[in-house]
Amino acid sequence: MSKLYMAVLGATGIVGQRFLSLLYKHPWFEITLITASRSKAGKKYSEAVEWVISNDVPEELKDMRLQELSIEKIVAEKPDVVFVALPSSVAVDIEPVLAKKGLVIVSNASCFRREKDIPVIIPEINSEHLDIIDYQRQERGWEGFIVKVPNCTSAILSLSLKPILDTYGISEVYAVSMQGLSGAGLHGVSSLEIIDNILPYIPGEEEKLEYEPKKILGMTRNGEIIERNDIRIYARCTRVPVLEGHSISVLVKTHNEPKSIDEIINIYEGFKGLSGLPTAPEKPVIVHRSNNRPQPRLDRMNGNGMSVSVGRISIYKGENKIKYFVVGSNTIRGAAGNAVLIAELLKQRKMI
Ligand SMILES: NC(=O)c1ccc[n+]([C@@H]2O[C@H](COP(=O)([O-])OP(=O)(O)OC[C@H]3O[C@@H](n4cnc5c(N)ncnc54)[C@H](OP(=O)(O)O)[C@@H]3O)[C@@H](O)[C@H]2O)c1
């Protein structure tokens, strides 16, 4: 089988590094174009990148040449998918132009996530939202299309909410996040700010967490995604001195009463992964019974970083409330891994 061509825009950042590490040995995909900012264009990847996600840059990536972010050059390479790991302020101008020129964009940048015709996909939850792509193309006059990857914390929360929503229904969610440093990007938070500390504010994050799960868990109608506005999410997002992995303490108010903690555990364990996609974990949600799990350091790489881990499940009898703690990798399930899984889904659905 000949491989599909993948471009990674923003290949030197934290998410870009994750993309390359997931793609260089991928059975279906091949990296054919990587970009960084202008000062790094033309350089070998190993010379330009500040590699932080493992001991060393894999041999296969070291000699790849970085390109500048040029629309003409990207279009000329004819990639089958363009993965975007750029700041949203840069992506906002480039993504619609590339989509108009016929390219398929799978993007981690937050721009356009609130547009009704642009799906925000977690393949295990809402793959049917891809059905609106035809409307997106028609309405916007694009030959290509844009699919969005959710915000990292929203991805982790949504996976943990899906089985509860399907079984009991949900009216309210209270979520307090403790987000790792890699979520702020390569040069995001200074050591003087974060060592021995917790930052109680991450700009824009609470708005995303209060909105995106409602879109991801929503349905499509007449070419639009209808959000679950019957669910109210209250979010508080904090930055903590953890290198990688976001943890969220969650309280969910359900419509129907859970009978027992075991019943909830069984429901999570019945949430099966997708078959036939190389990056799909066997279990999207892993349940822990021990009182001191999950922990970001121990559990962020479960399912190769694609599973979220739920534990500390409690119920409040007679109040229809479930409380739990969830941990996941922000750069893999919350970003590059989910994007690669979306691209695999697009291939499975013959959309690329
Ligand atoms: N980090 C996470 O956990 C996470 C999770 C979900 C979504 N996201 C989103 O993913 C995107 C990337 O995040 P990140 O954490 O990887 O950020 P990052 O570490 O700061 O990396 C940003 C990348 O974009 C490139 N870039 C920046 N400005 C550019 C410009 N004007 N022209 C061309 N290239 C430019 C950088 O190249 P240089 O190296 O040359 O500067 C670098 O490759 C953001 O939109 C972020 O919100 C991040």
Entry summary:
With 352 residues, the chain is an alpha/beta fold. It has helices at residues 14-23, 45-48, 59-62, 71-77, 88-100, 123-126, 133-140, 152-168, 191-194, 205-216, 261-269, 296-299, 332-348; strands at residues 4-9, 29-35, 66-67, 81-84, 104-107, 145-148, 170-179, 219-221, 224-226, 232-239, 246-254, 285-287, 308-316, 321-328. It has two domains: 4-151 and 335-348, 3-Layer(aba) Sandwich (Rossmann fold); 152-329, 2-Layer Sandwich (Dihydrodipicolinate Reductase, domain 2), CATH 3.30.360.10.
Mind telling me which CATH architecture of the largest domain this is? 2-Layer Sandwich
- Mean residue pLDDT: 97
Each distinct ligand: NADP nicotinamide-adenine-dinucleotide phosphate
Task: Say what the CATH topology of the largest domain is.
Answer: Dihydrodipicolinate Reductase, domain 2
Tell me the radius of gyration: 20 Å
Overview of the molecule:
- This protein is an alpha/beta fold.
- It has 2 domains: about 5-150 and about 335-350, 3-Layer(aba) Sandwich (Rossmann fold); about 150-330, Dihydrodipicolinate Reductase, domain 2, CATH 3.30.360.
- The protein contains 13 helices and 14 strands.
- It has helices at about 15-25, 45-50, 60, 70-75, 90-100, 125, 135-140, 150-170, 190-195, 205-215, 260-270, 295-300, 330-350; strands at about 5-10, 30-35, 65, 80-85, 105, 145-150, 170-180, 220, 225, 230-240, 245-255, 285, 310-315, 320-330.
- It has a 6-stranded parallel beta sheet, with helices on both faces.
- A hairpin with a 4-residue loop joins strand 13 and strand 14.
- The chain is globular, with a radius of gyration of 20 Å.
- The chain starts with a strand and ends with a helix.
- It binds NADP nicotinamide-adenine-dinucleotide phosphate (NAP).
